[in-house]
Design a protein that fits this description.
The chain is α/β, with parallel strands linked by helices and 329 residues long. The protein has helices spanning 54-63, 84-104, 120-134, 156-165, 188-207, 210-213, 232-241, 253-257, 269-279, 299-305, 310-324; strands at 3-9, 27-31, 34-39, 42-44, 68-73, 109-113, 138-142, 144-145, 148-149, 168-172, 218-221, 261-263, 284-285.
Length: 329
């Protein structure tokens, strides 16, 4: 089975039409043939394929050769800037809608829900409820929470719960950049800023010892892990001598790095092959980043361009996702 493990949806239940008085909710409309998302005072046009209607989304997946799609929220709607109670209410709306979609299309849809990670203890409690509601799967979280990266000790209760429950935790950048003026040039906030944020999150988790303390974690990094693989030598070198780099991590950084899972959204067959060579085919999952302009409209093609063994290709195209999401058998 071909499984797209990285695809987003805005569920109708979260739109402004469902609660017109709640100004934080987005509107999605089409102007001059272009889909526009009104959110946070901005008009966003980067979602170039259907973002709301599930039948149209599944039609798009059919055209790309995908047989099952793992839907997760649009990361901008994780609402970490809200109070924990408000965040919990938003999560409940999204998770229930995703659960309904997964039940109605049991052979086509899996889902990754959302939790109020601005309150890690509450998020740990909610995680179990989300897993039961969705049946299988896990959650999507952002690479940072209000500027705090994921290796911070405040998130320890969440990571402990995720390991104990066996949840797949998908880390996605926030798409907000870093506040530097240069990121407003040449689409750098997306091409460089998004993978850079994922890179920082992964490095923080490694050097803080989170992946070492919780070897059973199932953490999936968006966009091929950003640039984390190209920095493994620097992380290793720092760990051999620098007190801060050695403060929390006992094992070599490469050992923790190999514990992550990575999607295929690299836009480069050779780069994908290098990723597979380092982490193993059993740690790479097909992804499209649907419906965005920086996504991959034909995600199977890049996997086949990598020149992998048929058994490795089968793992990446669906076997790994099926295993991690409990879809086997």
């Amino acid at each position: 089975m071909i499984i797209d493990a990285h695809a987003h949806i805005i569920v109708p239940e979260i739109l402004r039409d469902a609660a017109p008085d709640e100004a934080w909710r987005p509107r999605v409309s089409v102007h001059d043939g272009q889909q526009v998302i009104e959110f946070g005072g901005k008009h966003i046009k980067s979602a170039v394929r259907e973002f709301v209607d599930i039948n149209a989304i599944l039609d798009e997946q059919d055209k790309s050769g995908v047989e099952r799609v793992v839907l997760c929220p649009w990361v901008s709607l994780l609402r970490y800037d809200a109070s924990p109670d408000e965040g919990r209410e938003t999560c409940a709306i999204y998770n229930q809608a995703l659960s309904s979609l997964a039940q109605k299309q049991a052979g086509r849809i899996s889902a990754l829900g959302m939790i109020p990670l601005q309150d890690p203890d509450l998020a740990a409690i909610e995680l179990e409820a989300v897993m039961k509601l969705l049946g299988v799967g896990g959650v999507e979280i952002a690479a940072s929470v209000n500027g705090v990266y994921l290796g911070d000790d405040r998130f320890e209760s969440f990571w402990s719960a995720a390991e104990a429950i066996g949840a797949l935790v998908f880390i996605h950048p926030t798409t907000r950049g870093f506040g530097e003026e240069v990121f407003s040039d040449y689409y750098l906030w997306n091409t460089v800023g998004n993978p850079l944020e994922t890179t920082i999150a992964a490095a923080h988790l490694i050097m803080a010892g989170v992946m070492e303390r919780h070897p059973g974690l199932k953490v999936l990094l968006a966009h091929g892990g950003g640039t984390i693989l190209s920095l493994r030598g620097r992380l290793h070198h720092a760990h051999t001598f620098q007190p801060q780099a050695r403060a929390r991590l006992k094992e070599s950084p490469e050992e923790s790095l190999r514990r992550f899972y990575f999607d295929t959204v690299t836009h480069d067959g050779g780069l994908l092959r290098s990723l597979v060579d380092f982490v193993g085919a059993d740690h790479v999952l097909l992804g499209s980043d649907y419906p965005f302009d920086m996504g991959v409209e034909r995600p199977l093609e890049i996997v086949r361009q990598a020149g992998l063994a048929p058994s490795d290709e089968a793992l990446i195209l669906g076997g790994n996702a099926a295993r991690l999401l409990g879809l086997e058998g």
